[in-house]
Write a structure and sequence with these properties.
Glutathione S-transferase Yfyf (Class Pi), Chain A, domain 2, 11 helices, alpha+beta, Glutaredoxin, single chain, 4 strands
């Protein structure tokens, strides 16, 4: 699937290395509207683009989800093309000649894909579970934010519809019936695996960042810094000093020291 996607993007973009000056990244309004799982996805892509040294501007849109080709954020506009979500965006960037993991061995490239799949199959599902199925977080944070930019009754109907969609998707993945403790165990296992892979290195595959580093930072940093009525995921991450230090390191290198916006 990935190879077919990459080839399709290559054909569409003409495999050119040029990066336009007016690339835009689209997401919901950050302060008022965006939910923390969507914020984590957007931060992962932003970090990836920063790691590649690519310039872009962030466009905040109430209807960013509806504008996206996949119905999910973030998405970028590169010339006349719209590309949404991290994996297709990585494929798009790579066809332009910007490769973070080009020096990895084939074995390490396979490892990288496996760890990125772990994030998608564990942390992303756990984030959606916490955001939409945990009653305290859903009622106090997620639903109010998701509906905040719409008038009544849409501000009530749209969050309800989204919650139903998320629950159905998680049910199909056998996550909806998990207890919260079981979800926390999944997060703990994921963090243990990431901590062991990182060990004492600056990045997950040595001294240079890869796509995995951007993805992990986006999700862990969001969980560590988002103010939620349930902080259990953040407490789990804080058990692993090297993961917390990793987030601090990436934050300093690509945001604070460069005056980049989150």
């Amino acid at each position: 699937m990935t190879s077919l996607l990459t080839e399709a993007v290559k054909i569409e973009l003409g495999a050119t290395e040029r990066w336009p000056d007016n690339v835009k990244l689209f997401q919901q309004y950050q302060v008022e509207q965006i939910t923390f799982p969507d914020y984590a996805a957007c931060l992962s892509v932003k970090t990836y683009l920063h790691m590649c040294g690519l310039k872009f501007t962030t466009e905040l849109k109430i209807n960013a989800e509806e504008m996206s080709p996949s119905g999910r954020v973030p998405f970028i506009q590169v010339g006349p093309f719209l590309v949404s979500e991290m994996e297709p965006i990585i494929a798009c960037v790579q066809t332009r000649g910007f490769l973070l993991s080009s020096e990895l061995t084939d074995i390490h490239k396979s490892e990288l894909k496996a760890y990125m799949a772990l994030i998608g199959n564990t942390l992303v599902n756990a984030e959606h579970y916490l955001a939409w199925l945990n009653k305290d977080v859903s009622e106090e944070v997620t639903k109010p934010r998701y509906g905040s930019m719409h008038p009544w009754p849409l501000n009530k109907l749209l969050p309800w519809k989204k919650q139903r969609e998320v629950k159905q998707r998680l049910a199909g993945l056998e996550w909806a019936e998990k207890t919260f403790d079981e979800v926390c165990d999944e997060v703990l296992t994921c963090c243990q695996a990431l901590s062991e892979r990182l060990d004492k290195q600056d990045f997950f595959f040595g001294k240079r960042p890869t796509e995995l580093d951007a993805l992990v930072f986006g999700h862990l940093f969001t969980l560590l810094t988002t103010d939620l009525p349930n902080r259990e995921f953040a407490l789990i991450i804080q058990r692993f000093d090297n993961l917390v230090q990793f987030c601090d390191r990436v934050d300093r290198k690509y945001y604070k020291n460069l005056n980049n916006d989150y």
